[in-house]
Write a structure and sequence with these properties.
Largest sheet of chain A: 8 strands, mixed
Order of helices and strands of chain B: HHEEHHEEHEEHEHEHEHHEH
Strand content of chain A: 15-25%
CATH class of the largest domain in chain A: Alpha Beta
Strand content of chain B: 15-25%
Distance between the termini of chain B: 80 Å
CATH topology of the largest domain in chain B: 2-enoyl-CoA Hydratase, Chain A, domain 1
Strand order of the largest sheet of chain B: 3-5-6-7-8-9-10
CATH superfamily of the largest domain in chain A: 2-enoyl-CoA Hydratase, Chain A, domain 1
Largest sheet of chain B: 7 strands, mixed
Structural class of chain B: alpha/beta
Helix content of chain A: 40-55%
Oligomer: heterodimer
CATH architecture of the largest domain in chain A: Alpha-Beta Complex
Order of helices and strands of chain A: HHHHEEEHHEHHEHEEHHHEHHE
Number of helices of chain A: 14
């Protein structure tokens, strides 16, 4: 497993524990007290490391290659996830996965950005950066959900929409813009969880929702800290400064009124325990599905979503 | 006289580039073909180069003058101004940037909105100002555009928005991104009451502005040569590590790829806008 720089001391302890366990297995020395002592130290260290993270470190966790991805979370949360493919116009975009399934007794449409965990997978998934056809696939399935009165659950996890030749030719801007407008008018509730990286318009393109949740170590930003630093300081290395000033951590996003709440992650982050992370997400989504089940007037659902975004912005008058 | 002095004197003898400078208030050089143009000629030609048809970027005031009935513009929400709610500082504090831009332009932010007459036909109009912090969309631009669209939902007059913007305003963080959702949501309400929306995409329109209301017109128009993109050319070059083809992301490229309806020379814009709103508007056949 890849280790982030600030996790290194912790990793050292884990390695030591593993070595001691190996030793006690091989020889007949009893090292259990020693092991216990180091394990306790590791726990304390883990708590210390993860209670005082800088925004730049949170950004690293949000991009951790071992973080649970949308597709895996769908499989952990839903009873029978059936993936559906294609935008019916150009091709299937592997950067966005979508499909239907049962969450307990609720029929739901799920849509999420899809990153990979290694180079090969990341190339196939284009590092979770969708092309226009990804957004159009998402929109096709949202309209289908509307047709069959299914709530929509979306997971955001992308560095941003892909900046490339083909993406521009096929109308990246138009695809995202259309999703924003069409999502605003959906007659079914939409629940969004930012599970990792919430990168700009590419994230928002599936995020105009009734409820928005941030995973504890997820970020949501108008521009990547590196992109912001290279524009404002002409130096991408100044991203530790911009990651602070952009206010992109889960608590910031809730404080600014963009997200409704934070979903706690297992100690150390979702990459340590996918099942636990999935369970916390499931609990929150289920609570919402139960609540929306009681709202039969679709106008209320549309109005709630409209007003949520209508209120966003700070200005003087 | 040493050779060094000789060079120094030679430098002095050379007419300074300052002296060659054309008085800015009388003559201008075309940015495309370098032709020296008499400013008055240029202005009477809608600020389009008479030689090569290059469309100069123009201010909201000039656009109002060129396209709408004289003195018909009634501005709305001019009092909404930006707030530095993140106390954002890069090489300069956002609060200072705002002040400087306001002083230079005499307006509070990067868009002007209101009602105007187009050959006698009332329309709701917004014009973005690239000169104000690159036309970037923060809370003020988002709010004013949204209110303009909501006015259209109420008064049923067609909505025309002229965009010119580098995208979302980073200094307002995530809330600038959310203006994309806010404005687009308002457009879904406008669509529901069948009020026509014409987007005139002006040079340049990129990022969050193009990925929201700029691309959502019932009809999308643009001027020749306009840069329209989601990601800027430099970002794409860095990503794909190859040179971009000539004309990439220009108005004609977007027309070819089906993203805009027409590329319209500035001198034809007024008549075309009038014809379109008269044809599309189901709410008021009479003007």
């Amino acid at each position: 497993m890849k280790t982030l720089a600030f996790e290194a001391p912790l990793q050292e302890l884990y390695e030591k524990i593993a070595q001691l366990k190996q030793l006690s297995l091989e020889g007949d020395v009893d090292l259990s007290r020693e092991i216990e002592r180091i394990e306790a130290r590791a726990d304390t260290l883990k708590k210390t490391i993860y209670t005082d993270l800088s925004p730049a470190q949170v950004v690293q966790i949000s991009r951790h290659p071992n973080r649970p991805d949308s597709s895996s979370l769908f499989r952990l949360i839903l009873e029978n996830f059936i993936e559906l493919h294609g935008d019916r116009a150009f091709r299937d975009d592997p950067s966005i996965v979508a499909g239907v399934g049962f969450l307990k007794k609720h029929r739901v449409m799920v849509i999420g950005h899809q990153k990979g965990h290694d180079t090969k997978e990341n190339i196939y998934r284009n590092f979770g950066m969708p092309h226009p056809e990804g957004y159009r696939k998402a929109l096709r399935l949202m309209k289908m959900a509307e047709k069959f009165s299914m709530p929509i659950v979306t997971f955001i996890d992308t560095p941003g929409a892909f900046p490339g030749l083909g993406a521009e030719e096929r109308g990246q801007a138009e695809a995202i813009a259309r999703n924003l407008r069409e999502m605003a008018g959906l007659t079914v509730p939409v629940i969004t969880v930012v599970i990792g990286e919430g990168g700009s318009g590419g994230a928002l393109g599936i995020g105009v929702s009734n409820k928005v949740y941030m995973m504890e170590y997820a970020v949501y930003s108008v521009i990547s800290p590196e992109g912001c630093a290279s524009i404002l300081f002409h130096d991408a290395a100044k991203s530790d400064v911009t990651s602070k000033s952009l206010k992109i951590t889960a608590t910031d996003i809730v404080a600014l009124g963009v997200a409704d709440d934070v979903i706690k992650e297992p100690l150390g982050g979702a990459h340590y325990d996918w099942e636990a992370a999935a369970a916390s997400i499931k609990k929150v989504v289920l609570k919402n599905l139960n609540a929306y089940k009681k709202i039969t007037d679709v106008k209320k659902i549309q109005e709630e979503r409209y007003m949520k975004f209508r209120k966003m912005g700070q200005f003087s008058e | 006289m040493s050779i060094v002095d000789w060079f120094a004197n030679k430098e002095k003898r050379r007419p300074s580039s300052k002296k060659l400078n054309i008085p800015g208030d009388l003559w201008v050089k075309c940015l495309a073909c370098s032709e020296v143009l008499f400013l008055k000629d240029l202005e009477s030609n809608f600020k389009v180069c008479p030689k090569c048809a290059y469309h100069f970027r123009i201010s909201p005031e000039e656009r109002l003058k060129f396209l709408f009935d004289a003195d018909s513009f009634e501005e709305t929400n001019a009092g909404i101004g930006p707030v530095d709610f993140l106390t954002f500082t890069d090489t300069e504090a956002y609060a200072d940037r705002i002040k400087r831009a306001q002083k230079k332009s005499g307006v509070k932010d990067a868009v002007r909105t209101g009602r105007a007459l187009l050959k006698g036909k009332a329309v709701n109009v917004a014009i973005m100002d690239f000169g104000f912090m690159g036309g970037s969309m923060g809370s003020v631009v988002g709010e004013k555009i949204t209110r303009l669209i909501e006015a259209g939902v109420e008064n049923k007059h067609p909505v025309i928005i002229f965009t010119a913007s580098g995208g979302a305003r980073m200094q307002e963080g995530i809330l600038s991104l959310m203006q994309m959702a806010k404005t687009s949501a308002a457009l879904s309400r406008l669509a529901a009451v069948s009020v026509p929306y014409i987007s005139v995409v002006c040079d340049p329109t990129t990022g969050g502005t193009s990925a929201s209301f700029a691309m959502l017109g019932d009809v999308n128009l643009t001027e020749p040569g306009t840069l329209i993109s989601f990601a800027g050319p430099r970002v794409i070059e860095q990503t794909i590590r190859q040179k971009l083809p000539k004309g990439f992301q220009r108005a004609e490229f977007l027309l070819e790829h089906g993203m805009v309806d027409r590329v319209v020379p500035r001198c034809e814009m007024r008549q075309l806008l009038f014809d379109l709103v008269m044809l599309l508007d189901p709410h008021g056949a009479e003007i």
